[in-house]
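call fold target=Serine O-acetyltransferase
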Amino acid sequence: MSDVKEFIDKLHHTHKAEWEATPKIQDSIDWLTNLFEFLFPNNRLHKKATYVGILKKNQIDLENILLSYLDPTEADIEGTVNAFYQSLETVYHHLRADAAKIYEFDPAATSIHEVIVSYPGFYAIAVYRIAHQLTLLKVPVLPRILSEYAHRNTGTDIHPAAKIGVPFMIDHSTGIVIGATAIIGNNVSIYQGVTLGALQVAKELAEVKRHPTVEDNVIIYARTTILGGKTVIGKNSIIGGSVFLTKSVAPNSHVFNTHQLRIEVKDEVFD
């Protein structure tokens, strides 16, 4: 019985330390949901007079989340919160540009608003841009909670530390992976099942660029895998579906899988 008590004591000590260093997940998700609803209202239209109050509450909620797990003597929580909300207009304009690009290239989309309220790819980009801004402000843990929430709900896994230009299009969303040190330029389109990953996974490579660079105006079609921190996809290139790349591609390249599909049609046989 003493062994059980000793185990419980150690478990409680570990849990307490980890709990104190982690924001409450549900509070974090609620904050994200309210912020997205403020930027892109769907369920109801806010009265103009209430916008300031709604934003102020969201700001207070973020401050309380940070205070719940960061030491205010070591982190400038007020400065971080103010800097985040000062960047919010820029984040919003970037997201409008993302939505417009998705609408422009998706023949199934009937309006930009439809993209905003119903496309998982847009939602994944929106959460990325919010989480990325927090990452730039050196906020720990919270950006990953937000990005993993989006991952769970959209099937798209974008590390908040990745650098992605504007506009950016994700089509169909499911199965996309973009690693922490990936760099994506402006006007890039990515389709389902694309991975921008590392050639190898090792802890000692944590500070090394492990993921590819994709330059401006590139299209990467479905189920393509591009690996390696030194791999660069040159601007204006098109990477076809089911391609596997570990080497750089020059600008203006078209890269396609050479596997051939053979189809035989047999004569119908009638009794």
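return ok
The chain has eight helices and 14 strands. The longest strand covers residues 156-158.
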